[in-house]
Structure of Succinate--CoA ligase [ADP-forming] subunit alpha:
Amino acid sequence: MSVLVNKDSKVIVQGFTGSEGTFHAGQMIEAGTNVVGGVTPGKGGQKHLDRPVFNTVADAVKETGANVSIIFVPPAFAADAIMEAAEAGIGVIVAITEGIPVKDMITVKEYIQDKDCRLVGPNCPGVMTPGGAKVGIMPAFIFNPGRIGIVSKSGTLTYEAVDQITKAGMGQSTAIGIGGDPIIGTSMKDAIELLMNDPETDGIVMIGEIGGQMEAEAARWIKENGTKPVVGFIAGETAPKGRTMGHAGAIVGGSEDTAQAKKAIMRECGIHVVDSPANIGSKMTEVLA
């Protein structure tokens, strides 16, 4: 089993014929993902990467039965693309786009509240279930099917954790890159809860960073409800105070926002915290022994 995406997922690509959409859709198809088509307004009826192109998500859903969408749409139009997917009945919406205005994301969050969908991102690397589906920009070759779930705010640290777990001989159930923006669809707690409830996930890697309250919220949920070991890492410990980091959400605003404070809270909640991402694999091996 896995969470969010698997070999039965029927995936469409919004922004299908653009350069980013084309490149990553090609990689997803190569990785064995069931990409059933794509959406580019005005190009409906054409073929691209040997898949049909539709003018709207509703058309794509009607013709293909798509239930997952990945969004490679420029920031100015990405919020509309998310809402269009939600309106069309897509169950899992993965927004890769970076730089969507916060005001637009406030509108999106409100709009999708009463829709039967889950948004991952924006500004994220996507979701990957090895041997099932790659819905994102993660490099498939470092993954191996296994029983460790990964949740991360950082794209590159997602890949580092995956590589460590693969090299430690364990493999992954599902990796979820939640994104580093101030307003995202699926929180760290949400993603960890999905993996805690997955019978084929034995342990979880949780990678956070400075800024925001998400890690503390997830850690406290784990303390109350956790049934599996969690290995944690917080990025940004050496960041200069007050400096805006690469992610829009990595702005320290209070005493619980710092790397030190987050690590202390995580340790108090029973999470196995490592001080270097190089120790993620060995620590997970140790706690599962």
In short: Residues 15 and 72 are 5 Å apart (CA to CA). The chain has nine helices and 14 strands. Residues 75-87 form the longest helix (13 residues). The chain has a mean pLDDT of 95.
